[in-house]
Amino acid sequence: MTTIARLPARPAPDTELRSAALRPVVLAGRRFWGLAILLAVAALGGVGAYAYQVTNGLAVTNLSDDVFWGLYEATLVTFIGFSYGGALVSAVLRLTNASWRGPLSRIAEGTALATLLVGALFPIIHLGRPERLWELFVRPQIQSPIFWDMVAILTYLVATVILFSLPLIPDLAATRGDPRLGRWRQRAYAVLSLGWSGLHRQRVSLRRALTALAILIIPMAVIVHTVLSYTFSLTSRPGWHSTIFGPYFVIGAIYSGVAIVLLTALVYRRAYALQRWIDDRALRNLAFVMVALGIAYGYSTFSELTVEGFVGTEASVELLYGLMLERYAPAFWGFIALGLVIPITLVVVPWTRSPAGMGIASVCVVLAMFLKRLLIVVPPQTRPIVGGEAGSYFPSVVEFLIVTGAAAGIALILMAIFRFVPVLAVDEIEEIEHEASEAAAAGGRAMTRPEIALGEVH
Amino acid sequence: MYVPGLRGMVILLALGVFFLGLAAPTRVGATHRGEGIIDATSLELAFERSAQRGIADRLVARLLAVDGAPVVGVEVEFVREIDFLGPRRVLLGRAVTDTAGVARVAVVPTSTDERILVRFRGNEHFEAIERVEVVAIPAESVRHEPARHSADGGTGASLRPIANVMPALLATATAIIWLVLIGLAGMTVRAMRGDPLPARLPGMTGGSGESPRTATRDGSTVEKRRSGT
Hints:
heterodimer, A: 458 residues, mainly alpha, B: 229 residues, alpha+beta, four-stranded antiparallel sheet, 26% helix, disordered C terminus
């Protein structure tokens, strides 16, 4: 038999880790099914509301000639933003070889996939004639940013599916023999593990592919969200026509995306007693990343408003007054409080930097960023451009039902994903621990655990 | 059998002429469609260079009825035909004919010959007509600036080649990304295949504390065994 160069022998696999990774797969009690049923009802309600909308037309929404984009567009931007955060957490932490990425990468990738699958539906939901969607493919308007937005989102979706699937291969192979899985899952795992047997060449190939994919997905995600911002900024409408919208949207997307990954990790950690694996260090580091992005987003918001207010064109002043002092002031200052002040404070202050505090912070960010997207989309449209009275908009019941159903759909997809695949990236965690122990054994201080300036506790 | 007399034949002849006259078109070239008469039309297209800086150049269409009378107050479309991944059309603008039957739309030409389609969609009085022509543009009119609003309020539709280059670049970049993604996935899947999957992999879990079976395997031991066979 040909001698094949192999990596040094890995230590005994951590069976407790592998067992813990399968807990969401094999354990499904009454609370799980109760929640699943509740979410399914909400999702079906959304589907029913959409069917009602298709039958009766967009008149069932409160969209009008003045305000032609509303809750659906804000939801599209929000959900696509969530997916960007998940993909970025996985990709950037992999490229920087962060030692704390292991427990979070599968959750981040799953969150990216679930939010993108649902978010990408919203341009269709917003269409008045969805049966004409096929014309976007056979008769595209290639000069339109909306066409390229669709292309970018589809490409990003393919990349996210691959980013989620490839790291699964060794984990499915490692856990396929667990008798708790049942026969059909064991067979599925055997098929989906594609002949993985831990050989050196397989590991090298997988590592190269994941590195290349991580490098590729970062600019793709930037492009997707920048093109999404162009649907607003490439217009001459005051409040939308802003040169800062590209990076503003990207930063906002990562900020909200990291928050949703943090929230998902906290939920699974609590629900399946994964504290040993999704430890406080990983959560804290992720929360610090969220805070840094929150500060960047706050700075961008300040910059945009200051420039608009200082120059003081009639349209800008009118919009700023409405946003900060008049009609939309409660929503705007609510965003400032919920989206910036409270979450940053909760994470930065040591005695509130607990899992509960981080959970509250992430929930605040998720809700506030959704509100901020509404504030970006709606108020500039209420100001008439040609003439007439100021417009107004408040989402209808149908719109609320559809968006609620979509949010429930994301949670359902996540639950379904982790009912089928391990929630922890077993092979990646073992590899990280193996590298750490190798480095420690080789002598000298292992630099695989970067120190956090804000007071990390080992 | 009744044979009409001379008076009857004159009456019949007069009636025949009367009904034939109703059926016959009153003007040469008109098409009878039942209730009204619809005139045929002719359409001419030309390029009109602006004599004044700040005023955009124009495409000019002249719509006449078959008898040479101008067709007034109807909408004419100007469309540019391009070739990008197949024949495509870009609407340059629409204009209403004036009292001379002339419709004008402002343009910013970017080459000395533009393939333009001009179209009148017809109405209850006039036939639809369209005409495709390669319009010769003077070299001094060809510019590569962004379209600007002209002093008289018209907006030039851009004919800049960048409008064709950007979609080509985006399509190329997208195609490359797709090829890379599919290639990565394909190569990785191929690399996974190789040695057949053993019955049990190193450290295949049997559960820990939650299952009666516990299995622990030393990966290195299994690998040595495999390399020895």
